[in-house]
Amino acid sequence: MIGGAQWTIAGGRVLGPAPFLLAGIINATPDSFYDGGRHLAPAAAVSQGVRLAGDGAHILDVGGESTRPGAAEVPLEGELQRVVPVVRELAAISGRQVDGLAGTFPVVAVDTYKAGVAAAALEAGALIVNDVSACRFDPALLDVVAQLKPGYVLMHSQGEPRTMQNDPRYGDVVDDICAFFDERLAVLVRAGLPEDRIVLDPGIGFGKVLEHNLAVLQSIERFGKFGRPLYMGLSNKSLWGTLLGLGPQERLQATAVATALLVARGVLVHRVHEVAPALQAARVAMAMTA
């Protein structure tokens, strides 16, 4: 397993050891590229979480602001209204036995870069903060994660979501991401977030064109040098559209294939819109590499 097979999250709870973990995406947004608007109402978002749990998710990742290229920023109060009721209701079920589930109900993550949203979601029962900014867009988020010590997804991005795809450039993309992780890991640990709470996301599609994304995927083992598990978010993303000429709704098969390959190569956490095909793909990968 690249970087380790378990992850400590809020309250000292440990996810794993496991061959893989699936994080089901809940977009409580009107404008996300794949399913924007379908789960904007809190009841719809909760229903989506229950469906993803039934499909085999280990984590439910709730977000209230789209981070697709060009997406508009959502004010703090608006994001709180979208996210907190959903987190609270799903977290109230988390860890319980639920009819129809093979195991217990998944843990809840919040996908945000805002300190106020992260703090409110953690108070409402989230155990993980998935942050596209590495605590750079809202520096107060560093204090929140250092004090509350949730599981934390440290993601690489070049630029902000609205402009990140304008003209991304790197020397060597993997070297540059590794240097970024070195610097941000040191900042987080120095602030007081234990290293065992952190997983690393190379940020597929965040300030990267096709050649950058493929270079990251081809060299994924290089990130094992940090000793931290990897968290991959490549579900239905534009690299599959560029590579294969597919629209957002046509990329499920490419996502499942990529998920299987990354499971076989030791990536721990896989963030996906559709859990059922990802779970099948991951199980096939494990059976063929056992």
Automatic annotation (TrEMBL):
Keywords: Folate biosynthesis, Magnesium, Metal-binding, Transferase. It catalyses: (7,8-dihydropterin-6-yl)methyl diphosphate + 4-aminobenzoate = 7,8-dihydropteroate + diphosphate. It comes from Humidesulfovibrio mexicanus. The keyword Transferase applies. Pathway: Cofactor biosynthesis; tetrahydrofolate biosynthesis; 7,8-dihydrofolate from 2-amino-4-hydroxy-6-hydroxymethyl-7,8-dihydropteridine diphosphate and 4-aminobenzoate: step 1/2. It is an enzyme of class 2 (transferase). Residues 20-283 form the Pterin-binding domain. CDD domains: DHPS. PROSITE patterns: DHPS_1, DHPS_2, PTERIN_BINDING. This is Dihydropteroate synthase. The lineage of its organism: Bacteria, Pseudomonadati, Thermodesulfobacteriota, Desulfovibrionia, Desulfovibrionales. Catalyzes the condensation of para-aminobenzoate (pABA) with 6-hydroxymethyl-7,8-dihydropterin diphosphate (DHPt-PP) to form 7,8-dihydropteroate (H2Pte), the immediate precursor of folate derivatives. It comes from the Bacteria. Its EC number is 2.5.1.15. GO terms for molecular function: dihydropteroate synthase activity; metal ion binding. Its cofactor is Mg(2+). InterPro entries: DHP_synth-like (IPR045031), DHP_synth_dom (IPR006390), Dihydropteroate_synth-like_sf (IPR011005), Pterin-binding_dom (IPR000489). Belongs to the DHPS family. GO terms for biological process: folic acid biosynthetic process; tetrahydrofolate biosynthetic process. One of its GO terms (cellular component) is cytosol. The keyword Transferase applies.
